Each structure stands twice: as C-alpha cells, then as structure tokens.
C-alpha cells in the first residue's frame, strides 16, 4: 500500500470517473486502474462499483476512503513541518463558511490574500454547519468558519468576533414605527426564517423545554432572500449585525435593535486539534481582522499572533 494509491482512490471518489481522476493526478487511466486494483487485492475488498456511471463507492470502500483521507492528511502535515517560513505562506488553503458568514467575509479574504499573500491559493465554499464539521473531521477542508459552540472533541474553536442581531421590519408592518423591539415581542410575531426552506417561525415550533437560539433562523440560505420576502409580505426577519454594511440605506432604516436581552452570537475558526499550520491560521485571522470592525473582535484575536 502506498500514499499514491490512497490519493488515487480519493481522487476517484471526488471526480466520479477514472478518466477525470487520472487527469487530475497526472497519470494515465490504465495506470490508475491498475494501482487501484492492486490496492483492492491487497486489502481483499472492493472499493468501487465500476458498473455505475459515475462510479460509486461500496460500503466498505467508504470506510477505506475515509481512512485514506486521514492518512494523506497526516502525511502532508509531516511535510509541512520541514517547510521554510516563506514556503508556509504558499500552497492551497480550503476554507468552508456558513451561509450567513460567507457574504461578509469571502470577498474581503480574497482581496487580503491577493494583496499580502499571493502565493497562497484560497478556495472557499458555503456549507451548512453539520457539513463543515464532517468535512473537517475527514480532513477534506482545512478550516471552517461557523458559529460557536461546535461541541466536537476532535476540533478546536478559536473565537473570532461577536455580533448582535437586529430585527428587520417591513415599512408596511404596524411595528415599523417602533425604535426598538423586545426579544419576547419579536418572538410573539411570525418571523421569516431560512431553515428547512423559507418559512415562518413562531414559538409553537419549539419542542417542550427547547431553548430558542437565533441560529435556528438560518441554515442553508442567504439573508437577502429573507429580506425580500419580509418586505413583500409586510413581515419581520432577523439580520446579523455584520450584514448591515451590505444593505442599502433604505433597508437599514427599517432595522430595529432587539433588547431585553440583546441577542448575540460568536463566530469562530474551527480546525482539527492536530492542525499544525500555525502561520496559515494566523494569516486567516489577520485577514478577518482586516474585514470585521475592531469593536466586534473577540478578545482572543486581539493578540498579534496566536499559538497552537
């Protein structure tokens, strides 16, 4: 068994076809097929069902590939330990973000990397929280940016910034004349949310004893869609503070602070506990500090350089 064989089966799963996987790995299809066949014979398992198009992964193949990703990840970690400081600021960096964080950070991070670390090839994706955690644990991405708490013993959470929530009230709504809104008053009214599709939220959706959190408002969708629907229906929705700067002034005038209590959330950088790229981690943190106003920084990232 070789690292090369493990990289091949990972590529085949990622691309779905031997031809595309071979091209990505810089080998011929026949070479890749032979190497994968030898690995299957050595392990005495069938990793792929080659009769489907694209090829599918068998049940045991899924377990093999998950372990292969871990082995390849750790082999790359060993290589990184010997790289020079200059080299550590280059290469690929894959970051996943939740859908309410991505619009705030993506553009600014690409600009920061282009200006200060052009050799660092940033790739970002929007994902729901559970997918980010799963991909981090499988070493399919390098970092995740999401809301705390992550609550996973295999991952490390580094708080980045906190933000309040504001109520957006359509001008056609009777509550549009209020200066602020108490939390309970907000929740006593139907509020547009993005979770399991766009729908109205009210207290009856909570199970007995279940606590309300504002993260229940968002999963797998864009804030702008909620604003549009709330506006056209004369309704209400909830907006994270960092999104305000992305909104036109006409929309900002319809935002109301929520009080008693003031709702907040903390955004964190999540990495595997065996992550070793301290310098890359700090580059990412510096890029976020360049985007998020100082007043919102968590005390953790006020340090110039964080150590793992």
Key phrases:
single chain; 308 residues; alpha/beta; Arc Repressor Mutant, subunit A; D-Maltodextrin-Binding Protein, domain 2; 3 domains; eight-stranded mixed beta sheet; two-stranded antiparallel sheet; 11 helices
Structural class: alpha/beta
Number of helices: 11
CATH class of the largest domain: Alpha Beta
Biggest sheet details: 8 strands, mixed
Mean of the pLDDT scores?
Answer: 87
Shape: elongated
Rg over C-alpha atoms, rounded to the nearest angstrom: 23 Å
Query: In CATH terms, what is the fold-level topology of the largest domain?
Result: D-Maltodextrin-Binding Protein, domain 2
The overall strand count is 12
**Strand-residue proportion:** 15-25%
* Helical amount: 25-40%
Q: Helix and strand string, N-terminal first?
A: HHHEEHHEHEHEEEHEEHEHEEH
Counting structural domains, the number is: 3
Low-confidence stretches: none
The end-to-end distance, rounded to whole angstroms, is 32 Å
The name of the CATH superfamily of the largest domain reads: Periplasmic binding protein-like II
CATH architecture type of the largest domain: 3-Layer(aba) Sandwich
